[in-house]
Design a protein that fits this description.
Helix content: 40-55%
Largest sheet: 2 strands, antiparallel
Number of domains: 1
Distance between the termini: 34 Å
Strand content: 5-15%
Shape: globular
Strand order of the largest sheet: 1-2
């Protein structure tokens, strides 16, 4: 049976990630607080932010920015979106 978590984004029990997506304490926190569905949605938003804002992942400031956006996303707080982006209806 698949492991479940109470997802911080959705506030309900959902299938968990199979393994920590990041190393260390941050990865362990994600493993215990974030559902696989929420992680996949974050990956989509993160990719959009990187591409549309022309971010370089070798820059420490970019990694800090993306980490802040990630935790905001999982806490259901407002996150940045590319200029002119309209969510699908």
């Amino acid at each position: 049976m698949a492991r479940t978590v109470i997802c911080s984004r959705y506030g309900k029990e959902l299938p968990a990630l199979e393994r920590a997506p990041l190393p260390g304490p941050m990865g362990e926190r994600l493993l215990t607080e974030v559902s696989a569905q929420a992680w996949q949605e974050w990956q989509t938003l993160q990719t959009m932010l990187i591409n549309e804002k022309h971010l370089s992942l070798i820059e420490p400031a970019t990694r800090t920015y993306l980490t802040e956006q990630m935790w905001r996303f999982f806490a259901n707080e407002a996150t940045d979106t590319p200029e002119g982006y309209q969510a699908p209806t």
